[in-house]
Design goal:
Elements lengths: L1 E6 L7 H14 L5 E3 L13 H7 L7 H13 L2 E10 L2 E10 L2 E7 L7 H4 L9 E4 L2 E5 L8 H9 L4 E5 L7 H13 L2 E5 L4 E2 L2 E2 L5 E3 L5 E4 L6 E6 L9 E3 L2 E2 L6 H4 L6
Parallel strand pairs: 1-2, 2-3, 7-8, 8-9
Antiparallel strand pairs: 1-14, 3-4, 4-5, 6-7, 9-12, 10-11, 12-13, 15-16
The protein binds acetamide.
């Protein structure tokens, strides 16, 4: 199967402009089976206040943005994981949504909110879903979740083969160094779809990345240009959890010693 990440600059609370900027990249990625878009792709990141954020957000079940992605999936027989500014009544969530030809399939709400996100968003309350797809099992993380190895471990131990990671990274190079390590230690594929551009004082760091269960970087974008990166993979490679011929990534864990740090 083919994985893709789209790196571009969503427009701040302007869905029409975002869809215009996104479409050429979707068209360029249409051969992929699974495409990953940046975090908060329907709203932009640096929202000035809560009323603006609420106005830019959409419910998963009634979203012009997700409808657009589903129509693309129907046309090109693919699936998309997108970052999504989600509204549920008066609550806002920084979510990732897996979309197929019929619409939203699964929603993950970001667990670890970064900096001022804490002023706008409610922390995730839907756990760490792993969804069975025809090509393999998919888990999701959003941006700053990268700094919490427990979440990657929990997804891998629930059977995720591929972890889609919509991002709006601002700390240069840190997550991009961690992703191949998370992939290697959990023996999974990871696709980080990061954004570029500047919003106010924030400059986003690009370098979207696709990493393999061996910790290889299969594809990586530059820091500052809009582009599509792709990699052809065998998702079954994520079923081999041996770190060495005698060391299993999960079975050799010493959960009896880790205390509260050890996900069981
Ligand atoms: C981030 O979590 N958007 C840095």
């Amino acid at each position: 199967m083919r994985l893709a990440a789209i790196q571009f600059a969503p427009a701040l609370h302007d869905l029409h402009a975002t869809l215009g900027a996104l479409q050429p990249h979707l068209d360029a990625a249409c051969e992929a089976d699974l495409i990953v878009l940046p975090e908060l792709c329907n709203s932009g990141y640096n929202l000035p206040d809560r009323p603006t954020a609420l106005a830019a957000a959409e419910p998963v079940a009634a979203s012009a943005f997700l409808d657009h992605l589903a129509a693309f999936c129907a046309q090109h027989h693919c699936e998309i994981v997108t970052g999504f500014c989600e509204r549920e009544r008066e609550a806002l969530y920084n979510s990732a949504v897996l979309v197929d030809a019929n619409g939203p399939v699964e929603t993950y709400r970001k667990l670890h909110l970064f900096m001022n996100e804490k002023d706008f968003f409610t922390p995730g309350d839907r756990g760490l879903p792993v969804v069975e797809r025809p090509y393999g099992r998919v888990g999701m993380q959003v941006c700053f979740d990268w700094a919490f190895p427990e979440a990657w471990r929990a997804l891998a131990m629930q059977g995720a083969d591929i972890i889609a990671h919509p991002s709006n990274l601002v700390l240069p190079g840190r997550c991009q160094r961690a992703i191949p390590i998370h992939a290697m230690l959990n023996r999974v594929f990871i696709i980080t779809g990061n954004r570029i551009g500047t919003e106010g004082a924030l400059t986003f760091t690009g370098q979207s990345i696709i990493a393999s269960p061996a910790g290889e970087v299969l594809a990586e974008a530059a820091q500052d240009n809009a582009c599509v990166i792709t990699a052809v993979i065998d998702p079954n490679a994520a079923h081999d959890k041996m770190l060495t011929p005698r060391n299993h990534a999960f079975d050799d864990r010493r959960a009896d010693v880790y205390g509260s740090a050890g996900a069981s």
